[in-house]
UniProtKB/TrEMBL annotation:
PANTHER family: ELONGATION FACTOR TS (PTHR11741), ELONGATION FACTOR TS, MITOCHONDRIAL (PTHR11741:SF0). InterPro entries: EF-Ts_dimer_sf, Transl_elong_EFTs/EF1B, Transl_elong_EFTs/EF1B_dimer, Transl_elong_Ts_CS, UBA-like_sf. This is Elongation factor Ts. GO terms for cellular component: cytoplasm. The gene is tsf. Keywords: Cytoplasm, Elongation factor, Protein biosynthesis. Residues 76-280 form the Translation elongation factor EFTs/EF1B dimerisation domain. It is found in: Cytoplasm. PROSITE patterns: EF_TS_1. Signal peptide: none annotated. The keyword Transport does not apply. Its main location: cytoplasm. HAMAP family: EF_Ts.
Protein backbone atom coordinates (compact mmCIF):
# COMPACT_ATOMS: atom_id res chain seq x y z
CA UNK A 1 0.00 0.00 0.00
CA UNK A 2 1.19 3.52 -0.79
CA UNK A 3 2.78 5.46 2.08
CA UNK A 4 2.87 8.70 0.10
CA UNK A 5 0.16 11.32 0.46
CA UNK A 6 -1.40 11.94 -2.97
CA UNK A 7 -2.73 15.49 -3.16
CA UNK A 8 -5.22 17.02 -5.52
CA UNK A 9 -2.38 19.16 -6.87
CA UNK A 10 -0.41 16.00 -7.71
CA UNK A 11 -3.39 14.52 -9.51
CA UNK A 12 -3.97 17.71 -11.46
CA UNK A 13 -0.29 17.94 -12.39
CA UNK A 14 -0.34 14.41 -13.79
CA UNK A 15 -3.59 15.14 -15.58
CA UNK A 16 -2.11 18.24 -17.20
CA UNK A 17 0.99 16.25 -18.16
CA UNK A 18 -0.84 13.28 -19.67
CA UNK A 19 -4.37 14.42 -20.49
CA UNK A 20 -5.78 11.36 -18.69
CA UNK A 21 -8.88 11.53 -16.49
CA UNK A 22 -8.68 12.66 -12.85
CA UNK A 23 -9.61 9.28 -11.36
CA UNK A 24 -7.19 7.45 -13.68
CA UNK A 25 -4.40 9.82 -12.63
CA UNK A 26 -5.16 9.36 -8.94
CA UNK A 27 -5.19 5.56 -9.25
CA UNK A 28 -1.93 5.61 -11.20
CA UNK A 29 -0.21 7.82 -8.60
CA UNK A 30 -1.42 5.64 -5.74
CA UNK A 31 -0.24 2.49 -7.51
CA UNK A 32 3.11 4.14 -8.34
CA UNK A 33 3.55 5.36 -4.73
CA UNK A 34 3.69 8.96 -5.93
CA UNK A 35 6.36 8.38 -8.59
CA UNK A 36 5.29 10.56 -11.53
CA UNK A 37 7.34 8.74 -14.17
CA UNK A 38 6.03 5.38 -13.01
CA UNK A 39 2.49 6.79 -12.99
CA UNK A 40 2.91 7.97 -16.58
CA UNK A 41 4.08 4.49 -17.55
CA UNK A 42 1.05 2.96 -15.83
CA UNK A 43 -1.27 5.27 -17.73
CA UNK A 44 0.46 4.39 -20.99
CA UNK A 45 0.07 0.71 -20.19
CA UNK A 46 -3.59 1.32 -19.49
CA UNK A 47 -3.86 2.87 -22.93
CA UNK A 48 -2.22 -0.17 -24.48
CA UNK A 49 -4.67 -2.46 -22.69
CA UNK A 50 -7.62 -0.41 -23.87
CA UNK A 51 -6.28 -0.45 -27.40
CA UNK A 52 -5.91 -4.24 -27.35
CA UNK A 53 -9.33 -4.78 -25.79
CA UNK A 54 -11.00 -2.74 -28.50
CA UNK A 55 -8.89 -4.03 -31.38
CA UNK A 56 -11.86 -5.75 -32.99
CA UNK A 57 -14.17 -2.76 -32.83
CA UNK A 58 -15.31 -1.09 -36.05
CA UNK A 59 -13.85 2.35 -36.84
CA UNK A 60 -16.36 3.98 -39.14
CA UNK A 61 -15.93 7.59 -37.99
CA UNK A 62 -12.97 9.96 -37.96
CA UNK A 63 -11.27 12.62 -40.02
CA UNK A 64 -9.53 12.74 -43.39
CA UNK A 65 -6.72 15.32 -43.61
CA UNK A 66 -4.82 16.32 -46.76
CA UNK A 67 -1.73 18.38 -47.55
CA UNK A 68 -0.60 19.35 -51.05
CA UNK A 69 2.91 20.80 -51.37
CA UNK A 70 3.33 24.45 -52.31
CA UNK A 71 4.55 23.52 -55.80
CA UNK A 72 1.63 21.14 -56.28
CA UNK A 73 3.77 18.09 -57.07
CA UNK A 74 3.15 16.04 -53.93
CA UNK A 75 0.06 15.21 -51.92
CA UNK A 76 -0.37 13.39 -48.63
CA UNK A 77 -3.61 12.05 -47.16
CA UNK A 78 -4.15 10.70 -43.65
CA UNK A 79 -7.42 9.06 -42.58
CA UNK A 80 -7.50 8.85 -38.77
CA UNK A 81 -10.43 6.70 -37.71
CA UNK A 82 -12.32 6.17 -34.46
CA UNK A 83 -15.46 4.32 -33.40
CA UNK A 84 -18.01 7.09 -32.85
CA UNK A 85 -18.84 10.49 -34.31
CA UNK A 86 -18.58 12.42 -30.99
CA UNK A 87 -14.94 11.33 -30.60
CA UNK A 88 -14.17 12.52 -34.14
CA UNK A 89 -15.17 16.02 -33.01
CA UNK A 90 -13.09 16.02 -29.80
CA UNK A 91 -10.26 18.58 -29.86
CA UNK A 92 -7.62 16.03 -28.81
CA UNK A 93 -8.60 13.74 -31.68
CA UNK A 94 -8.53 16.56 -34.23
CA UNK A 95 -5.19 17.80 -32.90
CA UNK A 96 -3.82 14.28 -33.26
CA UNK A 97 -5.03 14.08 -36.86
CA UNK A 98 -3.21 17.31 -37.66
CA UNK A 99 -0.06 16.15 -35.82
CA UNK A 100 0.01 12.90 -37.80
CA UNK A 101 -0.43 14.78 -41.08
CA UNK A 102 2.32 17.25 -40.11
CA UNK A 103 4.62 14.30 -39.33
CA UNK A 104 3.88 12.86 -42.76
CA UNK A 105 4.64 16.16 -44.47
CA UNK A 106 7.89 16.65 -42.54
CA UNK A 107 9.21 13.09 -42.93
CA UNK A 108 7.75 11.91 -46.25
CA UNK A 109 7.02 8.31 -45.15
CA UNK A 110 6.19 5.82 -47.89
CA UNK A 111 3.77 3.69 -45.87
CA UNK A 112 1.46 3.63 -42.86
CA UNK A 113 4.07 1.57 -41.01
CA UNK A 114 6.76 4.21 -41.61
CA UNK A 115 4.33 6.96 -40.59
CA UNK A 116 3.45 5.15 -37.34
CA UNK A 117 7.13 4.87 -36.42
CA UNK A 118 7.89 8.61 -36.75
CA UNK A 119 8.93 10.31 -33.50
CA UNK A 120 6.97 13.47 -32.67
CA UNK A 121 8.27 16.57 -30.89
CA UNK A 122 7.46 15.19 -27.43
CA UNK A 123 9.61 12.11 -28.03
CA UNK A 124 6.76 9.65 -28.55
CA UNK A 125 6.12 7.89 -31.82
CA UNK A 126 2.92 8.38 -33.75
CA UNK A 127 1.86 4.86 -32.75
CA UNK A 128 2.52 5.53 -29.05
CA UNK A 129 0.59 8.80 -29.21
CA UNK A 130 -2.39 7.05 -30.78
CA UNK A 131 -2.28 4.35 -28.10
CA UNK A 132 -2.21 6.94 -25.33
CA UNK A 133 -5.19 8.80 -26.75
CA UNK A 134 -6.98 5.47 -27.08
CA UNK A 135 -6.44 4.99 -23.35
CA UNK A 136 -7.63 8.49 -22.53
CA UNK A 137 -10.73 8.44 -24.72
CA UNK A 138 -11.56 4.78 -24.28
CA UNK A 139 -12.23 3.77 -27.87
CA UNK A 140 -10.21 2.40 -30.76
CA UNK A 141 -8.22 4.91 -32.85
CA UNK A 142 -6.25 3.86 -35.94
CA UNK A 143 -4.63 5.28 -39.05
CA UNK A 144 -7.16 3.77 -41.43
CA UNK A 145 -5.39 4.87 -44.59
CA UNK A 146 -2.39 6.86 -45.75
CA UNK A 147 -1.42 8.01 -49.22
CA UNK A 148 1.71 9.73 -50.53
CA UNK A 149 1.47 10.60 -54.24
CA UNK A 150 3.67 12.64 -56.56
CA UNK A 151 3.34 13.92 -60.11
CA UNK A 152 3.22 16.95 -62.36
CA UNK A 153 0.14 18.38 -60.65
CA UNK A 154 -1.72 17.10 -57.58
CA UNK A 155 -5.26 18.29 -56.86
CA UNK A 156 -7.20 17.42 -53.71
CA UNK A 157 -10.77 17.40 -52.46
CA UNK A 158 -12.22 16.85 -48.99
CA UNK A 159 -15.96 16.32 -48.57
CA UNK A 160 -17.78 18.70 -46.24
CA UNK A 161 -18.23 16.04 -43.53
CA UNK A 162 -14.46 15.48 -43.37
CA UNK A 163 -14.91 11.72 -43.84
CA UNK A 164 -13.94 11.50 -47.52
CA UNK A 165 -10.85 12.74 -49.31
CA UNK A 166 -9.43 12.51 -52.82
CA UNK A 167 -5.97 13.04 -54.31
CA UNK A 168 -5.60 13.16 -58.11
CA UNK A 169 -2.36 13.03 -60.12
CA UNK A 170 -2.48 14.94 -63.43
CA UNK A 171 0.04 14.93 -66.26
CA UNK A 172 0.18 16.95 -69.50
CA UNK A 173 -1.05 20.34 -68.32
CA UNK A 174 1.62 22.02 -70.46
CA UNK A 175 1.52 25.25 -68.47
CA UNK A 176 -2.28 25.54 -68.42
CA UNK A 177 -3.88 26.35 -65.04
CA UNK A 178 -5.96 23.24 -64.38
CA UNK A 179 -6.96 24.06 -60.79
CA UNK A 180 -10.70 24.31 -61.44
CA UNK A 181 -10.79 21.40 -63.88
CA UNK A 182 -8.79 19.36 -61.40
CA UNK A 183 -11.30 20.09 -58.63
CA UNK A 184 -14.12 19.00 -60.93
CA UNK A 185 -12.38 15.69 -61.61
CA UNK A 186 -11.60 15.18 -57.92
CA UNK A 187 -15.27 15.73 -57.11
CA UNK A 188 -16.22 13.30 -59.90
CA UNK A 189 -14.05 10.66 -58.23
CA UNK A 190 -15.65 11.41 -54.86
CA UNK A 191 -19.16 11.08 -56.27
CA UNK A 192 -18.75 8.23 -58.79
CA UNK A 193 -16.09 6.11 -57.04
CA UNK A 194 -14.32 4.70 -60.15
CA UNK A 195 -12.39 1.45 -59.71
CA UNK A 196 -9.46 2.56 -61.88
CA UNK A 197 -8.19 5.39 -64.08
CA UNK A 198 -8.73 3.46 -67.33
CA UNK A 199 -9.51 -0.03 -68.64
CA UNK A 200 -5.95 -1.29 -68.29
CA UNK A 201 -5.95 -0.43 -64.60
CA UNK A 202 -8.84 -2.71 -63.66
CA UNK A 203 -7.93 -5.76 -61.60
CA UNK A 204 -8.09 -8.89 -63.82
CA UNK A 205 -10.11 -10.64 -61.13
CA UNK A 206 -12.71 -7.87 -61.33
CA UNK A 207 -12.90 -8.21 -65.11
CA UNK A 208 -13.34 -11.98 -64.84
CA UNK A 209 -16.07 -11.56 -62.24
CA UNK A 210 -17.95 -9.02 -64.39
CA UNK A 211 -17.78 -11.30 -67.44
CA UNK A 212 -19.03 -14.33 -65.50
CA UNK A 213 -21.91 -12.34 -63.96
CA UNK A 214 -22.84 -11.00 -67.39
CA UNK A 215 -22.81 -14.47 -68.95
CA UNK A 216 -24.98 -15.87 -66.18
CA UNK A 217 -27.55 -13.08 -66.61
CA UNK A 218 -27.55 -13.50 -70.41
CA UNK A 219 -28.16 -17.24 -70.13
CA UNK A 220 -30.97 -16.67 -67.63
CA UNK A 221 -32.55 -14.35 -70.19
CA UNK A 222 -32.61 -17.28 -72.61
CA UNK A 223 -30.23 -15.85 -75.20
CA UNK A 224 -28.64 -18.37 -77.65
CA UNK A 225 -25.28 -19.70 -76.44
CA UNK A 226 -23.51 -18.46 -79.59
CA UNK A 227 -24.48 -14.88 -78.62
CA UNK A 228 -23.33 -15.07 -75.00
CA UNK A 229 -19.68 -14.07 -75.57
CA UNK A 230 -20.57 -11.12 -77.80
CA UNK A 231 -23.24 -9.77 -75.44
CA UNK A 232 -20.94 -10.26 -72.43
CA UNK A 233 -18.23 -8.24 -74.19
CA UNK A 234 -20.74 -5.43 -74.67
CA UNK A 235 -21.67 -5.53 -70.99
CA UNK A 236 -17.97 -5.39 -70.06
CA UNK A 237 -17.56 -2.25 -72.17
CA UNK A 238 -20.55 -0.77 -70.31
CA UNK A 239 -18.79 -1.63 -67.04
CA UNK A 240 -15.66 0.22 -68.23
CA UNK A 241 -17.77 3.25 -69.15
CA UNK A 242 -19.50 3.32 -65.78
CA UNK A 243 -16.58 2.36 -63.55
CA UNK A 244 -13.29 3.71 -64.97
CA UNK A 245 -12.59 7.40 -64.54
CA UNK A 246 -11.49 8.47 -68.02
CA UNK A 247 -14.41 6.62 -69.64
CA UNK A 248 -17.09 7.87 -67.27
CA UNK A 249 -19.61 10.44 -68.42
CA UNK A 250 -18.46 13.77 -67.03
CA UNK A 251 -20.90 14.67 -64.25
CA UNK A 252 -20.99 18.40 -65.07
CA UNK A 253 -21.43 17.88 -68.83
CA UNK A 254 -22.99 14.62 -69.96
CA UNK A 255 -22.09 15.28 -73.60
CA UNK A 256 -18.43 14.32 -72.96
CA UNK A 257 -16.56 11.73 -70.96
CA UNK A 258 -13.83 12.68 -68.49
CA UNK A 259 -11.10 11.91 -71.03
CA UNK A 260 -12.59 14.39 -73.51
CA UNK A 261 -13.20 16.99 -70.80
CA UNK A 262 -9.53 16.86 -69.82
CA UNK A 263 -8.37 17.07 -73.42
CA UNK A 264 -10.63 20.09 -73.95
CA UNK A 265 -9.07 21.73 -70.88
CA UNK A 266 -5.49 21.23 -72.07
CA UNK A 267 -4.45 19.15 -75.06
CA UNK A 268 -2.92 15.92 -73.74
CA UNK A 269 -4.04 16.46 -70.14
CA UNK A 270 -4.84 13.21 -68.34
CA UNK A 271 -5.03 11.52 -64.95
CA UNK A 272 -2.34 8.97 -64.16
CA UNK A 273 -3.43 8.01 -60.63
CA UNK A 274 -5.87 8.85 -57.88
CA UNK A 275 -6.57 7.94 -54.27
CA UNK A 276 -10.08 8.03 -52.79
CA UNK A 277 -10.61 7.35 -49.10
CA UNK A 278 -13.99 7.23 -47.39
CA UNK A 279 -14.38 6.48 -43.70
CA UNK A 280 -17.35 4.29 -42.95
CA UNK A 281 -17.48 2.91 -46.50
Amino acid sequence: MSTVQITAADVNKLRQQTGAGMMDCKKALVEANGDFEAAVDLLRKKGQKVSAARSGNATSEGLVSINVSADGTNGKLVALACETEPVSKVEDFRNLAQAVLAAAVANNPASTEELSAITLEDGRTVAETITELTGKIGEKIVIQDYANVSGEKIVSYIHSNGKMGVLVVFEGANGVDITEAGKDVAMQIAAMNPVAVDKDGVDPATIEREIEIAKDVIRQEGKPEEMVEKIAAGKLNKFYKDSTLLNQEFVKDGSVDVRKFLDNTAKGLTVTAFKRVQLGS
